[in-house]
Amino acid sequence: MTPTPGQHTEPQTDPHTGLHPGQRTEPHTEPHTGLHPGQRTEPHTEPHTEPQTELHTGQHTELHISPEFPAVLHRIAELGPALDAEAGPAEERGRHTEDTVRALLDAGIVRAELPKSLGGYEFSPRQLIEMVEQVSHHDAAAGWTMQALQVMTATTAAYLGPVAAAELFPDVATGKHALLAGQGTRPGRAVPVDGGYLVSGAWQFASGMAHASHIHSAIQVEGTGELRVLAMPRSEVVLDGNWDVLGLRATYSVDYHCDDVYVPATHTYPATTTTPANGGAVYRLGLVNLSALGHTGWAFGVGRRLLDELRSVAAARTGTRNAPVDTSQFHAEYATAEAGLRAARAWAMEVWQDIEATLDAGELPTPDQDTLLRLTLNHATTTALDVGRTVHRWAGTAAMRRGPMDRFLRDLNTGSQHITSSPVVLQNCGMWLSGARPQARWTFLDLGQD
């Protein structure tokens, strides 16, 4: 990105942001991203039957910091005006156009999380958070759709063995690979048969399904109770077409079902695995922890956009008769919202920086780190909701009429209902941090048996 005039320039750039250390020092927003300066404050095979922790031969233990990060952010910034313009029509349509999705894919959003060994960029956690944040700042539904496609496609690429990887990811560098959407919190039934499973089930909230070629779904193996994740063609399921909701309408997060579909064992992996068949250290986070990255970035992007919208309303109304935005109370509440959002983002980046160091050392996240990454996501979502309440209170009639502010408020309130930000997750974090269950370990979003 181009430095803002008057900013100090250093000879080195931060590998996570692609920015010179002296940038983001002025009190205005960066024209390419619309983000405030305070947001960049961080130092800048075959499937196994049991989860594994040892490394595959030749697997990279160090965390990869992608040099492609600045270029991807730049391409997203260039798409910003088009995303803004398309957001309203996409909501009315209930999905984004294929042209919009293709432009985002060409920008590298899904490739960003795909394994480097398969031709992906393999971004680090903080790079992934910031990338989703930027897309979501332009269009919350686009950010949600792309982060869902991103994590489900990336985990499939990372955890499936060579047979499935060759079929689904033949040429990532040229865009020839599967796109996966689906749901993994309520498993279907998998009956073992020769070479695989007969799968039946009904799943919900398949964000991005309009653009997917394949399905990502959780299954539970009959007889053993083992939880696995599958990849199968979208043509094998029936889409229920029931996405009639208040917000995130353009994500096309429909329900779907299937009955007795054969899925080869080669196209499934243990749901709790932290051992990638492809790629490096970032995939030792596991499916649930990787999904937290996109949701965290989404909350910050949406929260920032809402504050930007409120600032625009304030600028238009200041000086008019009895304008609430001219009161000291408005200024105090705006400052409080700004401080809360920046503080939440800084803390999240601090937590993820610590996790990155653990991954770079060849280790798995500690139970404390597993707790904090869930807590920072919960806090990011709660903080964004607090921002939304402040925006709604002070925007007056501007929050009532169709437009970006109204759409972002509805998208935020819908997205905040996601299971990863539920009160139960917050309660589990509190049990661990307070010492109530010091021997417990996380399994998905629950604290397992002590």
UniProtKB/TrEMBL annotation:
Keyword match Oxidoreductase: yes
Domain Acyl-CoA dehydrogenase C-terminal residues, every copy: 294-421
UniProt KW keywords: Oxidoreductase
Ranges of biased composition (kind: Basic and acidic residues): 23-61
Stretches the record annotates as Disordered: 1-61
Bias kind Polar residues: ranges: 1-15
A Pfam family the protein falls into: Acyl-CoA_dh_2
Keyword Oxidoreductase attributed: yes
Identification of the protein by name: Acyl-CoA dehydrogenase family protein
Organism: Streptomyces solicavernae
